[in-house]
Amino acid sequence: MRKLESTVQEQLIQKRVVPVAVVDCVEDAVPLARALAQGGLPVIEITLRTPCALDCIRAISRACPEVLVGAGTILEPSQVKAAVEAGARFGVSPGLNPEVVRAACEQQLLFMPGVMTPSEVESALRLGCRLLKFFPADAAGGVKMLKALAGPYESAGARFVPLGGISGANMAEYLALPVVAAVGGSWTCERKLVREKKWADIKALAAEAVAKAAAGADISTKN
């Protein structure tokens, strides 16, 4: 892994929680990013599911340089370049598309493809990806499935960021696994909260997630 990608990866998983947001109005992007950062999570994945998503990434990149902003739901190689030009520092996809992964490599963008099966994990590893989105985590077997995948692939350098069904109630179960680098999800910044501009609530949810992640890390260290 290139030094730049390594640095971004360290920032991405530092707090062990990656907020994932769907933003419908570009004016909400910066207040959202600031609320998360004030709660202790200076990282956000903006999904490319709305017409203003790239503009949201651009706004956060310019106004909040302290926040690591990335692009999610990348499905096409062209979206990789657009995301980088908007200021995205990392990229995420729900599945494993070799063309998208290669485009990210060309752009020197830290990329986290989605995987669910052993075959997909091996394909991702062959493409040079070590940090992998396990999606949809809950539907794909959750903690039990990740434990099974850890056996053959942890020694190969695979680390997972599970998304899909993750919440404040079950995040500790995932973070207790050594093969899990971080967890991701929208529970800290749900679409409804963003639409209603509940910045104080989002800040509080971020702080709660950070505290739970830290507590889990302390327990894991003691064990």
Textual characterization of the structure:
- The chain has one domain (3-216): TIM Barrel (Alpha-Beta Barrel), CATH 3.20.20.70.
- α6 links the parallel β6 and β7.
- The model is unreliable at 219-223 (pLDDT under 50).
- A 6-stranded parallel β-sheet has the order 5-4-3-2-1-9, sandwiched between helices. Strands 6-7-8 form a 3-stranded parallel β-sheet.
- The chain is built from 10 helices and 9 strands.
- Helix content is 48%, strand content 15%.
- With 223 residues, the protein is an alpha/beta fold.
- It is globular and about 45 Å long.
- It has helices spanning 3-13, 29-38, 53-63, 77-86, 98-106, 118-126, 142-153, 171-175, 191-195, 199-222, and strands spanning 17-21, 43-47, 68-72, 90-92, 110-112, 114-115, 131-134, 159-162, 183-185.
Features:
single chain, about 220 residues, alpha/beta, TIM Barrel, three-stranded parallel beta sheet, about 50% helix, about 15% strand, globular, disordered C terminus
